[in-house]
Design goal:
The structure holds two protein chains of two kinds.
Chain A: H1 2-28, H2 34-39, H3 45-55, H4 61-73, E1 79-80, E2 85-86, H5 87-122, H6 127-141, H7 144-158, H8 176-210, H9 213-221, H10 225-262, H11 268-277, H12 281-309
Helix pairs in contact in A: 1-12, 5-6, 5-8, 5-10, 5-12, 6-8, 7-8, 7-10, 8-10, 9-10, 10-11, 10-12, 11-12
Chain B: H1 2-30, H2 67-103, H3 105-119, H4 123-134, H5 138-165, H6 168-175, H7 180-216, H8 228-237, H9 244-271, H10 273-276, E1 288-289, E2 304-315, E3 318-330, E4 335-339, H11 346-353, E5 362-371, E6 374-375, H12 381-387, E7 392-395, H13 399-402, H14 409-418, H15 425-438, H16 444-447, H17 457-469, E8 475-479, H18 487-504, E9 507-512, H19 515-521, E10 524-529, E11 532-538, H20 539-544, H21 549-556, H22 596-600, E12 606-608, E13 611-613
Parallel strand pairs in B: 1-5, 4-9, 4-10, 7-8, 8-9
Antiparallel strand pairs in B: 2-3, 2-5, 5-6, 10-11, 11-13, 12-13
Helix pairs in contact in B: 1-2, 1-9, 2-3, 2-5, 2-7, 2-9, 3-5, 4-5, 5-7, 6-7, 7-8, 7-9, 8-9, 14-15, 14-17, 15-17, 17-18
The chains are: A mainly alpha, B alpha/beta.
Bound molecules: iron/sulfur cluster (SF4).
Iron/sulfur cluster binds at residues 549, 585, 587-588, 591, 593-594, 598, 603, 615-617 of chain B.
Chain lengths: 315, 627
């Protein structure tokens, strides 16, 4: 197992490099002088000259890439002109908030989605199945940001059950219950679409598996129906569900952008949108590379989980 | 029926989607012709007018602009941008995919590496990066959304192209001297076009949503022009005081995405024939029993006694009569062979015993199955479950698919025991080891930790047998257990089963299509054809003196048994489909002795003691004295 993880980590290196190349090329599309783009319109000539030297902006594209890559590898993501602080510091601070939101949301959509899919398949064509199918249809069709806004309107403004926005109450908050109260709505809104997608897929994966010969064998042995479904069938269905969980994690992680805006969540997504609007290029660049890299590592976790589940995968 | 309802339900939803989407499209197309206010004329005196007010059906926004007009113009824009993004993504993505798939080799490798890299990004993040570089704006948002969807098309279309590129018509075109461009345009493109269109129809919904999303963030359309996303984004500022400015565009996005989804699902279902045949139905825990006639009285034959069993498959309006009035019995220590071609109903008969016929579509429509006198067909699921594996156990064909691929062999054995007997894990393990040794698996101790795919076919089938023996059942039903194995292994498995029967007094029902196996193992044999028993009797008698023409021809197929004639006489023709059974003898179409009388009416099974035959003109008379 250790060797497999190592193998996957090594195979992630070219992907990570590819990500930096793609981000670099995208940012190289920026028209005009890159130094002005990075420093903003009001930079002095001195500072532009400094930056050109530091980042090698006057050098050819390839050299510029390697200087940038080298800087990042030493933890230097550059300095954000709009915030006037190191990009990495800002990202690390913000990423915590995003990780909490996306992490909780991902757990919600995985658990709920699989559960709904299993119930749906087990009660195929029954009332529960129809109700779930309908809910899934609504879930995957509502834009998360609109759902979030409607939740604010209903649960925060009308019913006054939950706080409107933010991560902690401004006065007297800051503990775990406070965080949870603030987290319920954004995490749910963020999870809705992914829950629907996962539920759908789990249902069809379960139906597919339930027709397999080994399920008939389990029944022929006298295994009870509950164990057939929750044990034999679900375990086999997980083989096709897990990769989709990996894909949905990407949607949840990046979809957090919308939710962070709607709920004023102090995460990386909101930082990115602000940075884009202020044309703070280094901050955008650093944020995108950082989040994409995290997603690559998450996918390694997914692969490892898959190999733990399925002995047929060569480790 | 429920399957049919489900299809109808689905189609109706798809129809709802089509109507909603159609209405929106028509509204959007005729928007310039409608008597609407100018969407961009501000009137701050009348800002935030609630909906359903005179002159402003949907109210006004923060600048007093008419919401209805803005909504329709915004929808127009959103749809146009989403569609444009879809077309661009489909065109570029497909081009990349076709080139990669057609040229293959290094080109393919390099391109697909790049595509993989792009797919390694969380989706929206990549779009954000592109907008960051190009700057906010609707056109840039469109480019970003199209760009991030290119890999999806590239990967899908490449897959199809690769499979097409190897086909003869491409080779033929190449030999005919056509250039690459012409082959791609005239031979490949027409074949991949349907896939492109389907992929587009499934992604256009996302793309509309994504461009709306970027506009919502303020990165798409810029004021005063507004698409649905930026309307919603602006509405958010006054969400609490004037929610209608958010609800109106939000509901519209929801309706568009939902109707596109519904339509897409409907199309996909319609194209997926598996759904229609009901094959995607989940088999229940036990076969449905719906007996039309009275339950036959017990006749005290055998330990397991199948009486006048009828099992059918109901698929849509069609009824497949897989098992038709079959009676069989087996005594302790006895081995009964059931032989027939595939589709003769022999396996369905076997599976009906413990309610293991997949249902839907299977239904047991008549007869009785008695174990030690008790009718299993009328039994509750609970009582049936406690008998499965405990009293009557199965051995199936091809244990690679019948053993669970993700559980260790030892755990599957232990489970077989523990679902009937509350014993400790250690005890169950010890018993599993004993079982593996009993079926003569070498290194049983270490084999317990194997997964099925790590064993050879013969070893796996031994595990299958061990599992059937786990609870010392009285009856074993073996459904072609040796078909997937080679001859030597087959002989070993048969010897093993024979030993087990003699040692433990098992009653075995052995399903096979091979008379050679029947001769080796069974005491009595029943020959099935098209869901019915056509001949029955003691094995030696049937082999030496077959009465039914079908039996005679089957025996002739086996060289060693056919009296030294080393020719394989395959039976010409095919068995009839069990949903279109002829009125008279089912074998008539393939029988060289068939007469008109054979086809006129159903033929009864005539009996003499153990011997029975269903034929008007048997090879020999049933009763010796009658000859
Ligand atoms: S009943 Fe007639 S057609 Fe059928 S098997 Fe006998 S001889 Fe042939």
């Amino acid at each position: 197992m250790g060797r497999y993880i190592l193998k996957r980590l090594i195979s992630a290196i070219p992907v990570l490099l590819g990500i930096t190349i793609i981000v670099f090329l995208i940012m190289a599309m920026i028209p005009g002088d890159p130094a002005i783009a990075i420093l903003g319109g009001y930079a002095t000539a001195d500072r532009i000259a400094d930056l050109n030297r530091d980042l090698g902006l006057d050098q050819p594209l390839v050299a510029r890439y390697f200087i940038w890559l080298g800087n990042m590898l030493t933890g230097d993501f550059g300095r954000s002109f709009s915030l006037n602080r190191p990009v990495l510091d800002e990202i690390l601070e913000r990423f915590n908030a995003t990780l909490i939101l996306a992490g909780v949301s991902f757990m919600m959509c995985s658990l709920l989605g699989i559960l709904a899919g299993v119930v749906s398949a087990a009660r195929q064509y029954g009332f529960a199945d129809k109700a779930i199918t309908f809910a899934v249809l609504i879930g995957i069709s509502v834009p998360s940001f609109f759902l979030g806004m409607m939740m604010i309107l209903f649960f925060a403004v009308n019913l006054r059950w939950l706080p409107v926005s933010g991560m902690y109450a401004i006065y007297g908050g800051g503990d775990l219950p406070d965080l949870i109260r603030h987290l319920i709505m954004p995490a749910t809104a963020l999870a809705a679409v992914a829950t629907g997608v996962i539920a759908r897929l789990s249902r069809s994966a379960m139906l597919e598996v339930l027709r397999q010969d080994y399920i008939r064998t389990a029944r022929a042995k006298g295994v009870g129906e509950r164990r057939v479904i929750m044990g034999h069938a679900l375990r086999a269905a997980m083989v096709s569900i897990i990769p989709v969980l990996g894909i949905q994690a990407g949607f949840v992680l990046s979809g957090a952008v919308y939710i962070e805006i709607v709920f004023q969540w102090p995460g990386v997504g909101r930082m990115l949108v602000t940075a884009i609007l202020q044309r703070d290029i280094l901050l955008v660049q650093g944020g995108v590379v950082f989040v994409a890299a995290c997603y690559v590592f998450f996918n390694i976790l997914v692969d490892v989980a898959q190999s733990l589940l399925d002995p047929r995968i060569k480790t | 029926m429920s399957g049919f309802l489900k299809l109808l339900f689905r189609n109706r939803l798809a129809a709802v989607g089509a109507v909603v989407l159609g209405t929106i499209l028509v509204l959007v197309l005729i928007t310039p012709l409608l008597p609407l206010k100018d969407p961009n004329v501000t009137d701050t005196a009348n800002k935030f007018i609630p909906p359903f007010t005179e002159g402003h059906l949907l109210g006004t926004d923060h600048l007093g602009r008419d919401q209805l007009s803005r909504l329709l113009h915004g929808t127009r824009l959103s749809l146009a941008v989403g569609l444009a993004a879809a077309v661009i993504a489909a065109t570029l993505g497909s081009a990349v995919g076709i080139i990669a798939g057609y040229f293959g080799g290094r080109t393919d490798n390099v391109i697909m590496r790049g595509v993989d890299m792009l797919m390694a990004f969380p989706y929206i993040l990549l779009a954000l990066a592109i907008v960051a570089a190009l700057g906010p704006g609707l056109l840039n948002a469109l480019i970003a959304v199209a760009a991030v969807n290119i890999p999806f098309f590239a990967r899908n279309i490449r897959g199809i192209t690769v499979s097409l590129a190897g086909r003869e018509f491409i080779d033929a075109a190449r030999l005919a001297g056509k250039g690459h461009t012409r082959i791609i345009l005239t031979e490949l493109l027409p074949n991949v076009l349907p896939t492109i269109v389907i992929a587009m129809s499934t992604t256009v919904g996302w793309m509309i949503l994504e461009t709306a999303g970027l506009s919502f963030l303020g990165l798409g359309s810029q004021p005063p022009v507004a698409d649905l996303g930026s309307m919603l984004g602006k509405g958010r500022d006054s969400l609490i005081t004037d929610p209608h400015t958010s609800i109106v565009p939000g509901v519209m996005i929801f309706l568009i995405v939902m109707s596109v989804n519904l339509l897409g699902d409907g199309v996909r279902d319609a194209l997926d024939p598996r759904l229609k045949s009901g094959a995607l139905s989940r088999p229940r825990a036990m076969t449905a029993v719906n007996r039309k006639g009275p339950v036959p009285e017990t006749d005290d034959k055998g330990l397991l006694n199948i009486q006048n069993l009828e099992t059918q498959f109901h698929v849509g309006p069609r009824v497949y009569r897989a098992v038709n009035d079959v009676s069989l019995h087996v005594k302790p220590g006895e081995c009964l062979g059931v032989i027939g071609e595939s589709g003769s109903g022999k396996s369905v008969t076997a599976l009906s015993v413990m309610g293991l016929v997949a249902s839907p579509p299977g239904v047991i429509t008549g007869g009785a199955v008695r174990y030690a006198g008790e009718d299993l067909l009328g039994a509750s699921y609970k009582s049936l479950r406690t008998k499965r594996g405990e009293n009557v156990a199965y051995i199936f064909q091809d244990p690679l698919s019948t053993l669970h691929p993700l559980y260790r062999v030892g755990d599957q054995l232990a489970e077989a025991i523990q679902c009937h007997h509350k014993i400790s894990d250690a005890k169950a393990r010890a018993r599993s080891l004993e079982l593996l040794r009993a079926v003569r698996i070498p290194n049983a101790e270490s084999r317990l930790r194997d997964y099925p795919h790590e064993m050879s076919g013969g070893m796996r089938q031994r595990v299958g047998i061990a599992m059937a023996m786990a609870n010392d059942p009285d009856v074993i039903i073996a459904d072609e257990p040796t078909t997937a194995l080679d001859v030597t292994v087959q002989a070993q498995i048969l010897a093993l089963l024979d030993d087990l029967r003699r040692e433990r007094g098992l009653a075995i029902v052995f399903i096979t299509h091979d008379f050679g196996v029947v001769a080796q193992l069974t005491d009595r044999v029943a020959v099935m054809y098209a869901g019915q028993i056509v001949e029955q009797g003691r094995t030696e008698e049937v082999l030496s003196r077959p009465l039914h023409p079908y039996t005679r021809r089957l025996i002739a197929c086996v060289p060693e048994l056919g009296g030294g004639r080393r020719r394989l006489e395959a039976i010409p023709g095919l068995p009839p489909m069990v949903d279109k059974l002829p009125r008279g003898c089912a074998f008539a179409a393939r029988c060289d002795k068939a007469q008109d009388s054979c086809r006129a009416a159903p033929i009864a099974l005539s009996r003499d003691g153990d011997r029975a035959v269903r034929c008007l003109f048997p090879e020999e008379a049933l009763r010796k004295d009658a000859s």
